Amino acid sequence: MTYVQILNDLHLADKAPVNCTESYTDDLFNLLYQTVEVAREYKAVTVFAGDIFHIKQPARNSHYLVQRAIDLIKAYPHQVYIVLGNHDLSSDRQDSVSNQPVGVLLKSGALPLEGWESTGLPLYGVSWLQRFTDQAVSHSLKSYRDANDFRKSLVVTHAPLYPPGRELPYEYYPADKWASAMGCSGSVAYGHVHDFHGVWESNGVSFCNNGAISRGSLTESHLTRKVYTTLWSSINGKFQALELQAKPAEEVFKVDQADRIKKSQLILDDFLSAIGHATIEITSTDSVMAYIRTLDLDDTLITVIKDLLEGATSR
Predict the structure, then answer these.
(1) Distance CA 56, CA 33 (A)
(2) In which element (H, E) is residue 302 found?
(3) 90: β partners
């Protein structure tokens, strides 16, 4: 198998996010079935790089939604692999998979990718880690480093990686350290970050994130970015971005809400200024969470708050 296709952050849901039109789920499946054709054309295996379902609570993912996902898996002409993301886990625990919707997909033809792919493809998976410490990252990539020849191998992960200089002030792991844990050789395609980063290098490793398949947040980047699937070649170790035929932003988002959000932002800023706090952007869950993380709360409490916010915005 020469090509590996990588898709990240599907965020399938029964109900559209509050800022999206009602066709959100149908639009996502339309994009995903385009990637089925890409897999057929390039004879590629496909890897879902985490966050397949948006809502972590199993009771809030209908049988119909899960069945649509199963039908999608079965439509691919070659094997589908899944690397677990934080939205696929309860409290970031990998032992929770059997109770999550993604666990059904792993019983229905998709295979987990954790460590080396079992048939000998130069393909290695690292799921979302409960803690991104140097020790945890090094341990997760030990089998990769121990391989005899991994110069033209691909690591697919769901991890908070960013090009140098574009890191967020929270929840990121330094790319140079990740590259060192890979023995400073090979390629890595990563999910978790929805924005387009393209292909970049750090410490001898080629990194790639061409953006999420889903567009669920009413942010400037989601209003303007294109939607891609990514191909990686085992022959030359190079990434290729293939643009999908996605609807324009005005058909995906309730764009008229943007003005109301901006007005609400001004009111919130005035209030926060009066009580001596910094501004909080309210255009997405991530922007609110950025403020929450400045409050020096316990990590477990932050996870609970994020789960509650994500659940509320999906109603």
Answers:
(1) 24
(2) helix 299-313
(3) 93
> Sign of torsion, CA 199 202 205 207?
negative
Does the pLDDT of residue 266 top 60, yes or no?
Answer: no
Which amino acid, residue 173?
Y
List, in sequence order, every beta strand (DSSP E) within 80-174.
80-83, 111-112, 115-116, 123-126, 154-158
Report how far residue 260's alpha carbon sits from residue 253's, in angstroms, rounded to the nearest whole number.
14
The range of the structural domain enclosing residue 207 comes to 3-243
Tokens 């003005």 sit on residue: 259
Got the DSSP string for 100-119? SHHHHHTTTT-EE--EE-TT
Please count the structural domains in the chain. Answer: 2
| 248 domain residue, yes or no | no
b/e per residue, 94-114, with b = 16+ CB within 10 A?
eebbeebbbbbbbeeebbbbb
In a domain, 249, yes or no: no
Does the global pTM surpass 0.85?
no
* Arithmetic mean of pLDDT, 240-265: 75
Q: Which amino acid is at 306?
A: K
